[in-house]
Amino acid sequence: MEEATDNNMIQRLAAHAAIGSAPQDELAWLARHGALRALQTGEIVSHKGWPVEWMYLVLSGRMALFIDRGAGPNKLVEWHSGDVAGLLPYSRITVAPGNSMALDPSEVFMLHRDQIREMTRECFELTTLLVHRLIDRARLFTSAELQNEKMISLGKLSAGLAHELNNPASAIERSVSLLTDRLEDSEAATLALGMSRLSEAQLAAVETIRERCLAAHATERSPLEQLDREEAIADWLSVHGLATGDAQMLADTEISFDALEAAAQSVPGEALASTLRWAASGCAVRRLASEIHGSAMRISSLILAVKGFTHMDQAITAEQIDLVIGLRNAVTVLNAKAREKSVKVTLEIDDALPQVLGYAAEFNQIWGNLIDNALDAAPNGGCVAVRAARENDRVVVRIVDDGAGIPAAIRSKIFDPFFTTKPVGQGTGLGLDITRRLVSHNDGGIDFESEPGRTEFRVSLPAS
After folding, report:
1. Does the pTM exceed 0.85?
2. Strands 383-391 and 344-349
3. Could you give the CA distance from residue 378 to residue 108 in angstroms, rounded to a whole number?
4. Can you tell me the distance from the alpha carbon of 341 to that of 278, in angstroms, rounded to the nearest whole number?
5. What are 50-65's pLDDT values in tens digits?
6. What mean pLDDT is predicted for residues 255-266?
7. Within 13 A of 304's CA, how many CA atoms are on the CB side?
8. Domain boundaries in the chain?
9. Does position 390 have pLDDT exceeding 80, yes or no?
10. In this predicted structure, what is the pLDDT of residue 216?
């Protein structure tokens, strides 16, 4: 690093795209108080966590800021000749969020933090130009951070969605396999029943048995209860001189022992086995078809929830938003994570909750971030409550968890960019910062209360 006070440096500063239009005397002041530094490719200018002490005017070459979110360094922003990096007047940044390094052989003009306050007093036009750069940089950083946070959220969503879709897809595969067997049983039983030459009265009794079986309410049984039922039906079949091979299929239905006795009294022995097999296989086919339908509807609802959560048909202007749909979608897409920790998630929404004016995709990201954080904070077997209600002329959404709470020492920092208490790779430190910005963009406010065993985040929005 070398002193830079000669006329050549003033000329180089005058050619700089960001500050070149400043008055000559202000550029001369800058040249007297700063220093020139040459950088080699790969040279680190500032390490993550270091105090931000310098303003860098890039005179030639390229620099970039890399942030490691747990999967290796990721380039957040790149600066070229004519750009300004590092500290700027009135910037609130205190520590570097990542590593800044030279991508090519580069030259930068450096001004130390101690000189920047004097510069704001002595160099009005120069300071104005740099403040405009600060605003542009804040806009650039916000856009890049928001995109990165969206990609991280989508990564989590994809993992959860794969897990959620696997369950109904497996259920469909299993049910289709069983359905083939039950259809074969039904066809064979129908053929045998047709050869039994039953009277009209007996056929009516057979139909009554089938209707009783179909009308019975499905019962959730434990494996032990199911085994006991199968053994009891096998005993009944044996007592009535029938083969016990159909016991499992009959046990899978809701047919009662009263219905079995009625069948035994109405249908002769040779036709009774065919009657019971026909009724049981018919019930099984209906039940399996219902399970397939339910699983398919589950897949459809998940896809609709994800589409709503990511808001693929997003409008570019503010519109009337029903928060109920967004909150339900957020809970749905994060359900897999809740189940992994055995966390109970409740959703309590007031009737006739008014709509709000805003951007649906932004609301979905707000709810996704806050509910995801609550699930992280809740203990295994804990609870997360999502509540939405009208309070005067506002709509207030509360996300409450029963975790350990936020320590008092860090409560003032949790909305700061890049601040996180999570281990490396599990948090970016941007979620709450971006959430706060998105809430503000939708004319809302966000605050929180925390104590051991209860943390509540509140988002307040103007009712439309």
Report:
1. no
2. parallel
3. 48
4. 44
5. 888 899 999 999 998 8
6. 79
7. 8
8. 2-122, 159-302, 316-462
9. yes
10. 58
- Please tell me the distance from the alpha carbon of residue 384 to that of residue 454, in angstroms, as a whole number: 10
Per CATH, the number for 316-462 is 3.30.565.10
Digit-coded pLDDT (tens) for 104-136: 999 999 999 889 889 998 999 998 988 888 776
Q: In the predicted model, is pLDDT for residue 36 greater than 70?
A: yes
State the pLDDT at residue 417: 62
- Segment 176-192, tens digit of pLDDT: 888 888 888 778 877 87
Q: What does the pLDDT look like over 65-91, one tens digit per residue?
A: 887 765 567 777 788 898 888 888 887
- β-bridge mates for residue 111, sequence order: 55
Both structure tokens of 415: 């909305």
Residue 90 structure tokens: 């009135």
CATH code of 2-122, in short, is 2.60.120.10
Q: Please state, in angstroms and rounded to a whole number, the distance separating the CA atoms of residues 59 and 300.
A: 56
Q: Say which amino acid occupies 440.
A: S
Q: Tell which residue, 333, 306, 307, 311, has the closest CA to residue 321.
A: 311
Residues in contact with 137: Cβ distance below 8 Å, sequence separation at least 6, in sequence order:
84, 88
**Tens-place pLDDT, residues 128-177:** 988 888 776 666 565 555 555 555 556 666 666 666 677 778 888 888 88
| CA angle (113, 115, 117) in 5-degree steps | 85
